[in-house]
Amino acid sequence: MKYVHRKIEEVLLSAVKRFPAVAVTGPRQSGKSTLLKHVLGDKYEYVTFDDPLVRERCIRDPKLFLSGIGKRVILDEIQYVPQLLSYIKIAIDEKRHVNGRFVITGSQQFQLMKNLGDSLAGRIRLLTLLPFGANEYSAAGKAAENTKKAFLGACLRGSFPEPAIKKSIKPENWYAGYIQTYLERDVRGIYGIGSILDFQRFMALIAARCSQILNLSSLAGDLGVAVSTVKTWLSVLSASQIVYILPPYFKNYGKRIIKSPKVYFTDCGLVAYLTGLKTDEMIMKGPLAGSLFENYVIQETLKMIFNVGQKVELYYFRTHKGIEVDLLIPDGTRIVPYEIKLTGTPKLEMAKTLSGLGKISEDFDVNRSGLICLSESTYKITRSTTVYNFMDYMSSLSKIMK
């Protein structure tokens, strides 16, 4: 498979020059190993803990294992040998001045990786690689003529590199194998969750409720399990970066504000597979149409943020009276609000909620508010609100990220 350049490459190269260690996390098959081998391969030894023999040697004597590898090394899929992380910390502390020694990858944002980041603050750079973003498809020869085609492609072929690039691959077959591998290696192997069938049902229910406010009690009732079990399973999906939990913005607004988060997948193709959507018509005219497009915008926003190495907290806003804004993006001391609508002809009333936010709080920069949709062009629909074609929204977002 031909290598496709990733937008995160520049950030990665900068990180290995400035930090003793760099950790790259992301869901399975998002392209982490391929990225590192291509960008760093000629200067780094490559070790993968997917190999059970390598894994056994490391577990038997982590200190000896670490002393026997090269001066610069890529340690792939380190979630299988979490005990090695404490020895990496010791090695870094012993030679604090040497940058770029360890590049670590993992399909999990597990607690030990977080602890490593905390204990080595200033010595390790944490990066996240999600599947292809819309601005990487063109490099893969998959440039869409417009937002609708890009959206449909993201749903029906997905944005994981292999099915996105290889036309000979049937997406449903690829996703079936992907989920099976994820369930066996991560859900059962790492987290020790025994009820794989129930967990797979849980994934399908979450997919059917993507872009919606989480109701844990409802999910637990549908599955016949305890709410605590649903919380645990959701944390597994989040740690695997299969889903993204979008928190509500409720600064000082008391009981008027909904405080439950919303859930999104980091790949619309996985949503479509889990919910049985196989055609353009099923995507565009089915009951999940609006939710899928909202998911698409959120997933692409996340990719843009991660690819430039930023740490930006995204939010949504909703009151008990039904005033809702889909996406809030902080920019300095202000917050830019966006609505997401699956329409090519947005109406004036769609902008009313955005302009009304100014009456709720000065935190919201309503004069820069946006309505993201399938419009062929970008234009002002009111004095304060801009209708964005999706690609123009991505361009405007890149300016916020600088």
Keywords:
five-stranded parallel sheet; Arc Repressor Mutant, subunit A; 402 residues; Trna Endonuclease, Chain: A, domain 1
Protein model, in words:
It is a single chain. With 402 residues, this protein is an alpha/beta fold. The chain has three domains: 9-128, Rossmann fold (3-Layer(aba) Sandwich), CATH 3.40.50.300; 134-298, Arc Repressor Mutant, subunit A (Orthogonal Bundle); 315-401, Trna Endonuclease, Chain: A, domain 1, CATH 3.40.1350. The chain has helices at 9-18, 32-40, 52-60, 62-67, 84-94, 111-119, 134-137, 147-156, 161-165, 171-188, 196-208, 216-223, 227-239, 268-274, 280-285, 289-307, 352-360, 390-401; strands at residues 21-25, 45-48, 73-76, 102-106, 124-128, 243-246, 262-265, 315-318, 324-331, 334-340, 369-373, 379-380, 385-389. The strands form three sheets. Strands 8-9-10-11-13-12 form a six-stranded mixed β-sheet, sandwiched between helices. A five-stranded parallel β-sheet has the order 2-3-4-1-5, with helices on both faces. Helix 8 crosses helix 14 and helix 12 packs across helix 13.
Would you summarize the structure shown here?
Helix content is 44%, strand content 15%. With 402 residues, the protein is α/β, with parallel strands linked by helices.
Number of domains: 3
Described by the principal axes of the CA atoms, the overall outline is globular
Number of strands: 13
CATH domain class of the largest domain: Mainly Alpha
Total helical elements: 18
Main pleated-sheet profile: 6 strands, mixed
Task: Estimate the helix proportion, in percent.
Answer: 40-55%
Oligomeric organization of the protein chains: single chain
Strand order of the largest sheet: 8-9-10-11-13-12
CATH topology of the largest domain: Arc Repressor Mutant, subunit A
